[in-house]
Amino acid sequence: MRLVSDLRTKIFADGADKAAILELYAKPWVRGFTTNPTLMRKAGIRNYEAFSREILAAISDRPISLEVFADDFDEMERQARIIASWGENVYVKIPVTNTRSEPALDLICRLSHAGIKLNITAIMTLSQVRDVVAALGGGAPSCVSVFAGRVADTGRDPLPLMTAAVEMVRTFRGIELIWASPRELLNVVQADQIGCDIITVTSDILKKLDLIGRDLADYSLDTVKMFYNDACSSGYFL
Q: Is the pTM of the predicted complex or chain greater than 0.85?
């Protein structure tokens, strides 16, 4: 099993806590950052632009994905152009459809071929992958985020889907595939094994990265010690 330092898949930190983002920026194995309106809301962010500009002022040498929050395609385009102007390392996140299930393909093609770096988000089917990479092809550097974790939440194994997506994306230069919304550390290893370019990782999973390659007998013993020490600390008796 690979160690963290041996992973070919790039790890992007996913979150909206400024202090945590800046702490992770000090770690060379964190190669980029992503966020979204839901994470920002959970983190209590009230001013979208102020938060984004603060992060970009501190981090200028790694890609940072920031999402539009409109539902109308004209407004999405206006927001995308503003967000893109904030830094050379900005990737603008565009949802694959709006809330009316209308594909964003025309907008994606227009923005990408205007030189705006994009991260197409909320993708969950291979047909969406196929259509999005076709729209992005020949445009600016971009990412295709397949929400493998949400696919798994439906009881489906996301690995075959992600393996097929790797093959679809690799035929296009300048487009990278993201394994988005992972649910466990194993997903990092799986992404690496199939040759996925990037995986977005939340703080709870990032904390477990040191466990990659851990000797299982040693890990078993540590678990036994944990149970014993917790029982002693609780003062249990019979």
A: yes
